[in-house]
Amino acid sequence: MSWGMASEACCYVYYPEDENDLLEIFELAKVRGMTVGFRGAGQSYGDAALNGEQILVDLSGWNRILDWDPENGLITVQSGVTIAQLWRRVVSSGWWPPVVPGTMNPTVGGCASMNIHGKNHWQVGSFGDHVVDFKALLPSGKIVYCSRLKSQDLYYGMLGSFGMLGCFLSMTLQLKQISSGEVQVTALSAANLDDLLRIIDIHKDEDYVVGWVDCMVGSSAIGRGIVHTARHLDLPSQNILTDDVAMSTHELPTKILGVLPAKYLWIFLRMFNHRMGYKIVNAVRYYLGLLRNGHRFVQSLAQFNFLLDYIPNWKRAFLPGGLIQYQCFVPFRNAYTVFHKIIQCCTNSKSPPYLGVVKRHKADDFLISCNLDGYSLAIDFSVKDSNRAGLSSLLAELDKIVLDAGGRFYFAKDSTLNPEVARSFLGPKTLARLMELKLGCDPGGLLQSNLSRRILPELHGYQVDKG
Ligand SMILES: Cc1cc2nc3c(=O)[nH]c(=O)nc-3n(C[C@H](O)[C@H](O)[C@H](O)COP(=O)(O)OP(=O)(O)OC[C@H]3O[C@@H](n4cnc5c(N)ncnc54)[C@H](O)[C@@H]3O)c2cc1C
Prior knowledge:
The protein is of the alpha+beta class. The protein contains 15 helices and 20 strands. It has helices at about 20-30, 85-90, 110-115, 120-125, 150-160, 195-200, 245-250, 265-270, 275-290, 300-305, 330-350, 390-405, 420-425, 430-440, 450-455; strands spanning about 10-15, 35-40, 55-60, 65-70, 75-80, 95, 130-135, 145, 165-175, 175, 180-190, 210-215, 225-230, 255, 260, 295-300, 325-330, 355-360, 375-380, 410. The strands form five sheets. An eight-stranded antiparallel sheet has the order 16-11-13-12-18-19-17-20, sandwiched between helices. Strands 4-5-9-7-8 form a five-stranded antiparallel sheet, covered by helices on one side. A three-stranded parallel sheet has the order 1-3-2, with helices on one face. α11 packs antiparallel against α12. The longest helix is centred in the middle third of the chain and has 17 residues, at about 275-290. It is globular, with a radius of gyration of 22 Å. The structure holds flavin-adenine dinucleotide. Flavin-adenine dinucleotide binds near residues 106 and 110. Flavin-adenine dinucleotide binds next to β2, α3 and β9.
């Protein structure tokens, strides 16, 4: 299944123990005339880690930390090591992964393959910016070692190219030095979209900024929400080398409000999986935020960054249809107009998003990239049999608004883009370069996924469906 559980596929799943096993899988696929897709922890919202009726290689077993240098913050890991393993290993020595997603479950291979971003993207760039070097196996059987100085083309090509060029075997990451493992967080309430973007903008010197948007209200309150800004707590004299007890203070609480077991809360959340429910939850969140405007508190880096892990399995509240996310990136100059239009289209639709999140970004040099100097808006929708068709026409309408404004899309979150939109945002030069790299790394066209066939069929030599 996709992480959001809105799409599924039957695949022949293999669990290689090492690169020799993977080579054998490649050979088997060639003999059988099949294609191969990769899966890390399966935390992509859409169909990136599915390869329907074909071979899917589950790499989550490659989870060994190969080398850790706490003097310099350099760590070498197999590609199936998760972000959770990573931070738990390094935090007590005063280091932290500089880029983490909203959950700690993804693998570093999946993060590299999608070149993920955090709530600090405009400050530190994306995951790939901190990959010192990586070792990868190409479908040809060739092993490559890439860094910014060595095999530069492949370095900038593979980081972000959604598993289409080769398999990351291991990589070395440069971590960020920290002195306390904690952040000072400030919660600021925003009355509307203008206010929200202004607050995010004036806090650009903070280490992290993220805006939550209530997408259920229209008119003058459109885009109202709460912005969280955070700054690393610098306590130079504090020694964060920890024993087990201190280590547990970094972890997420297992009980909400000190009493409710977090793991059962998704059952309670199910009651709110409808329009009125989203209205209530969003309004309560907004007014609580308004009451606590300016509230400051200290959180561990894990608690601040992995907010979406507080309630394990919360996605189950959206069963049976699951959920999808739509994340678009828009240049600064157009962001207000575009986000305003998007939220308006959503509030007028029959399927409003139950959650909206705004982040700030900067442009980068990776070949396949959603990043630009501007903001992203991520909106989450519950999928039901009754709204599938309406949702896809709503999202097609949003695609057009985003494209017209010079915007971009993020394949890790995508479930609905069509080839025409994907091609327009990538542009002919990038596409030609991707095809060239694909021919060089994977001349037999072995590597595919449901995502790649949906958005870029020409990458696999398939006829492009003009419809
Ligand atoms: C709750 C939640 C919050 C999230 N928050 C954020 C966020 O804040 N920012 C953000 O950027 N993303 C975010 N994501 C998305 C997530 O970080 C990415 O989808 C990430 O790629 C998932 O990693 P994974 O290991 O699960 O990879 P999978 O989902 O299993 O695979 C992702 C892609 O990587 C490829 N792949 C996996 N391993 C390898 C490998 N070793 N070699 C080559 N290709 C490989 C797969 O083929 C696939 O194309 C979030 C996801 C969830 C569920």
